[in-house]
Amino acid sequence: MPLSSRPTPQPGILDIAPYVPGKSGGPGRPAIKLSANESPLGASPAAVEAFAAAAQRLDIYPEGSSRLLREALGEVHGIDPALIVCGNGSDDLLHLIGQVYLGEGDEAVMNRYGFSVYPIITLATGAKIVMTEERDYTADVDALLAAVTPRTKIVWLANPNNPTGTYLPEAEVRRLHAGLRPDILLVIDNAYAEYVTAPDYRIGLDLVRASENVVMVRTFSKMGLAAARIGWMVGPPAIVDAINRIRGPFNVNLPAQMAGAAAARDTAFTARLKAHNAQWRDWLTGALQSNRLRVIPSQANFILVLFEDEATAARAFETLLAAGYVVREVAGSYGIGNGLRISIGSEAAMRGVADVLNSMMAGQ
User: CA-CA distance, 145 to 132, in Å (whole number)?
Assistant: First the structure.
């Protein structure tokens, strides 16, 4: 066998489509960024102060288990800190979960329009991703369960989901879990939990506590600390132990730990963020919903707008960009060619987006 002239990636790696983030701005001009589902109110002032204070301690390694952050999360959410693992963003933890529980010949199941990082994680381990069809842009529990085979090791569930904003109520999540074998890990990715207002939604913590095969993953990125890269997960002791064995020993830096702990405890800011988002998410949904535009009901800090066809969606993206608003195209990453995902921002931004889109549609 001839030797390669350079290092060769493992089989399948170069077949993986890389994650493509939303655009940050228009060509040569400042723009209002509504493409990454960031906080519409910035960061908690307490978190900013804590991050700045960490500058006095940059010469020492952080405590390796993120203890101060885990203790803050445990205090606020009523969780045993020993059952919490922190990571460099929630995607760090999702990758670790895949690395521990997936391998060559295994399968992981997800819904069609689930978070686009799940296939990357799955394929990188040598496993196969199995996508199921949805019911009106919402994960279908029956379809997910029907896709399970003897090779299934993980079911990925973003709840609420990105990029659709739809969610499964507690009863449906429990039905999904009840239909899985005990050796299949249910990963509940609650990246947008802070924004949910639906009364029948639960984060799944009771399932984690009562089961050996459920983990709940969360992030600070959507609540003002996207630049700090802080994720956390809660799981049963055996899974926490396995993840801790392979995670980086200092995988969350000290400024992030301190800012995260302060943000977790600043529940007043979190409540203000949720209230602002609910007000303008519902307002923008109502302002855009029409015979020619469909807005998928959302429980996250964004909405998915569906246009008549791909050409109209592309024109809407360019029209918004020309007006100074950057939103998220979801054709390439998610296969929703006629859709645009719009993050909830300031009142002025929401009114501006509505004016641009409604004017464009009226002029057709």
Answer: 9
